[in-house]
Design a protein that fits this description.
This protein has 302 residues and is an alpha/beta fold. The chain folds into two domains: 3-116 and 231-298, 3-Layer(bba) Sandwich (FAD/NAD(P)-binding domain); 124-227, FAD/NAD(P)-binding domain. The chain is 24% helix and 28% strand. It has helices spanning 16-27, 59-70, 124-127, 136-139, 156-164, 182-190, 238-242, 282-298; strands at 7-12, 32-36, 76-80, 83-89, 92-97, 102-110, 114-116, 132-133, 148-151, 171-174, 195-196, 200-205, 211-215, 221-223, 225-227, 232-234, 246-249, 252-255, 268-270. A hairpin with a 5-residue loop joins strand 12 (200-205) and strand 13.
Length: 302
């Protein structure tokens, strides 16, 4: 491939992490192409919280403003396209897009995020991002002091119980078929946190943050907000074809990166939910994307 037609960096995924990386690279006057399918993970949320300067704004509005701001940098190209495959090695990567175009770059940043794997429970997917949320740092303040519910998903759920106490003293745990160890149940009882056994068979939504949890063997329980942590999976399989090292977390697979956000393959960096093992947020994604862009740029210095 002609090196004069090659980008410095191709970023695959144009949400918070990808655009933050593009901004740093554009300001360093590096040629960068961002490939994006337009399906950010938090598109279901009405508002995004915790991002300095953008608190309580719709996430899609924040991203639209970011893309508008990137237009002032002549070396940044935003392309609405899916990356189908990656080949090559450091200084000579090739990315084939869904529309059949082949793009070249010296470095890659993977920021295509993850997708939440919704359980087969009526009403769950429809309530995701409104009545059902995963992150207290993102949504806890708006419902502080109200009645929260937690869908138990395994041992990490015990830590969530302690964490949520900073926001509310009213919490109900839904075992949802999980075996909760006797010592954990004793601790929950000591904290005066009720445990509702039985499988959740439906989530009924009555507007706002209210959710009615319907169970097969117990009366319905109404909560003001329901916290749940369904497993996630990467939204694309490019890392698998590249053989990149991963980390298996309690909620899903993420890419393994070093302190400079580089994956197990030289020249390929990763940022955002795709490489965040715990409590992902737009703040973390933006920070990681910026650092991935900076480290990718610095790796090309001569």
């Amino acid at each position: 491939m002609n090196p004069f037609t090659m980008d410095d960096v191709i970023i695959i995924g144009g949400s918070f992490a990808g655009l933050a990386g593009a901004l740093q690279l554009g300001r360093a006057r590096r040629k960068v192409t961002v490939l994006d399918t337009g399906l950010p993970r938090n598109r279901f949320a009405g508002h995004s919280h915790g991002l300095l300067g953008h608190d309580h704004k719709p996430p899609l509005d924040i991203l639209a403003q970011a893309r508008h701001q990137l237009a002032r940098y002549p070396t940044i190209k935003l392309v609405s396209a899916r990356a189908d495959s990656i080949s090559g090695a450091i200084d000579d990567f090739s990315v084939l897009t869904g529309d059949g175009k082949s793009l070249g770059a010296r470095r890659l940043i993977l920021s295509y995020g993850v997708v939440d794997q919704m359980p087969d429970v009526p009403g769950f997917a429809e309530s995701w991002g409104t009545s059902i949320v995963p992150c207290p740092y993102c949504d806890g303040f708006e419902v502080a002091g109200e009645h929260w519910g937690l869908v138990w998903s395994g041992p990490p759920s015990h830590n969530y119980v302690r964490l949520y106490h900073d926001w509310t003293d009213r919490l109900t745990v839904f075992a949802d078929g999980h075996d909760i160890a006797p010592d954990v149940r004793a601790d929950l009882a000591h904290r005066k946190i009720p445990v509702v056994d039985g499988r959740i068979i439906e989530i009924a939504r009555y507007g706002g943050h209210n959710a009615t949890v319907k169970l097969g063997t117990a009366p319905n329980v109404e909560v003001d907000i329901l916290f749940a942590h369904p497993r996630t999976k990467p939204s694309a399989s490019l890392h698998e074809s590249l053989g990149l090292a991963t980390v298996d977390t309690p909620v899903g697979i993420v890419l393994k990166v070093d302190e400079r956000r580089q994956t197990s393959m030289p020249g390929i960096y990763a940022a955002g939910d795709l490489a965040t093992p715990f409590l992902p947020s737009v703040t973390q994604a933006s920070s990681q994307g910026a650092m991935a862009g900076i480290f990718a740029q610095q790796s090309m210095l001569v």
